[in-house]
Fold:
Amino acid sequence: VKGISLFVVPRNTINADGSVGARNGVSCGSLEHKMGIHGNSTCVMNYDGAQAG
Structure:
């Protein structure tokens, strides 16, 4: 989709009954060291076994 600049990923998975499940496999790998724009952070995201909502 054109123009997406944000991904919302839940920290925990949701069980079939609506309760909070195990932690999702998403983590921030490393922050990018940029020249210029420092107002927003850019990082490498690791999706190790993560599940889509």
